[in-house]
Amino acid sequence: MQSAALAATKSDAPEFPVPANTYAETVVSVTHYTDNLFSFRITRPAAFRFRSGEFVMIGLPNAQKPVFRAYSIASPAWDEEVEFYSIKVPDGPLTQHLQKIQPGDTVLMKQKSTGTLVLDALKPGKRLWLVATGTGFAPWASLLRDPETYEKFDEVVVTNTCRDAADLAYGNHLIASLHADPLIGELTAGRVKYIATTTREPSAHMGRITTLIENGELFRMVGCAPFDPEIDRVMICGSMAMLNDVKALIETHGLEEGSNAKPADFVVERAFVG
Ligand code: A2P
Q: How far apart are CA 221 and CA 228, in angstroms?
């Protein structure tokens, strides 16, 4: 893991005009986990309000009409900076450039955030499941650091499934940092269960999340009964195929999909892909 951090000083003004309804913020730190994964933190505009788990459009000031992509906000609503977790796609319209950002550079962020992976979209329950593959872990990094998550749920189970062990690093670091966090360390103690699995590289725990749900291994690892609409609430974030497959499995347990307008038992959102 390579990190770069700098005091948050505004760099030179962007070379291109900032589009309407867009903030131009300064990169504070960048951390590279693998050749394909990195996270970064930017300054937070005083007026920017969001709910933990939402996403926002981000871009770079490198064109008259910059390319914007949806990114889950990985920091919690109370954080004074805004964090993102990203893949690096060699020819990705945004990420080919974004992966090169340095502290002091400018990142554009649209003023309005939105999304369904929010606590408000779920009915009250006892156990919250946060199920992610790949960069779908980002919204969990936000929700896991929000005290409201622990006010609403007794227990949180987080899953993180990637092809290779190195791809789990961001999630592993986040989970390890929870207990040391002065704000939520006490709240999280003994209440967060973390299930990290790989599907290609051999590791201690292997298997797609769908397989682990189907064969019951997930519930054995957590030490609980299978999904129960009376107890369990689920958020899912990953590729479209993963969302569809996990959703279908969850529905066989009688859980219903919710939204901001109609809170229910589970919510889904596609992870950023390119
Ligand atoms: P697998 O290695 O068996 O394809 P990706 O990088 O392609 O988005 O995949 C991230 C993780 O999600 C991988 O571990 C991958 O497993 C898993 N995955 C991909 N498709 C599905 C699916 N339909 N259901 C569950 N897990 C999936």
A: 17
pLDDT digits (tens, 9 = 90+) for 48-87: 999 999 999 999 999 999 999 999 999 999 999 999 999 9
What domains can you pick out in the chain, each with its CATH number? 2-8+17-110 (2.40.30.10), 119-268 (3.40.50.80)
Q: Is the dihedral of CA 54, 74, 134, 97 positive or negative?
A: positive
Query: What DSSP character marks residue 257?
Result: B
Asked if 71 and 110 count as a contact pair (C-beta separation under 8 A), the reply is no
Give 163-204 pLDDT, tens digit per residue. 999 999 999 999 999 988 888 999 999 999 999 999 999 999
Mutate to test the pocket of ligand 1, among 242, 249, 273 (most ligand atoms within 8 A of CB): 242
pLDDT score, position 8: 43
Q: How far is the CA of 228 from the centre of ligand 1 (A)?
A: 25
Closest of 98, 77, 83, 76 to residue 28, by C-alpha: 83
Residue whose structure tokens are 């700098």: 6
Look at ligand 1, atom 16, and give the residue with the nearest C-alpha.
Answer: 199
* 236 closest CA partner among 217, 220, 251: 251
Cα-based torsion angle of the residue sequence 109, 111, 116, 118 in order, rounded to the nearest 10 degrees: 100
Q: Tokens standing for 127?
A: 């156990």
Residue 199 CB less than 6 A away from ligand 1: yes
